[in-house]
Amino acid sequence: MRLVGIFLWIIVGAIILWFFSLNLNQHVDINLFNAQYQNVNLVTVIFISVFIGVIFGALLLSSQVLKAKTEVASVKKENRKLLKELEGLRNLSIDEIPEADTKIEPDRDL
């Protein structure tokens, strides 16, 4: 499975390089925040745009991962607390259980 993933990354890389080679001699003008850049190589613009997109995506993903990890940690803490309570209840003898907890009330919905 890992070999297939490596092979797919090689194919994606080859496609990107092929796309860049098609646009090597292309130049564009960019207006960015009241600044004008004349005659910029298109490959450079595409590379910088993809790089900035990857950085923003990684930042958004890392915030969601951190949020999920804190939620998992709180659930694990609650789980440990409930397991300790369960162990304590398992170790109780039948004589120690209060009378009110053992009464079974009939269903009145029938």
From TrEMBL:
Record-level GO cellular component terms: plasma membrane
Coiled-coil regions listed: 65-92
Signal peptide (from-to): none
Highest rank taxon of the organism: Bacteria
UniProt KW Transmembrane helix keyword: yes
TM segment ranges: 5-22, 42-61
Sorted UniProt keywords: Cell membrane, Coiled coil, Membrane, Transmembrane, Transmembrane helix
Pfam families: LapA_dom (PF06305)
Domain Lipopolysaccharide assembly protein A residues, every copy: 25-87
Protein name: LapA family protein
